[in-house]
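Quick one:
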Amino acid sequence: MITYEPFYDTLKRRGISTYKLVQQHGLSRSLLDRLKHNKPLSTVTLNDLCEILDCNVEDIIRYEKDSRS
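Output:
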């Protein structure tokens, strides 16, 4: 399972709020909802987030083995 928990850790470390992402960078609230609920994102979106946050993809996503497997 892909989790976006590192995204929120990265925001916290950098002192960036989700409000700032919406207001200054034009991210949609629906994208933030997708991140919050670990919904699928496109690689284009991941690339955009990496550019905005000046980070690597592992600072946004992490793979965790699903316990049901």
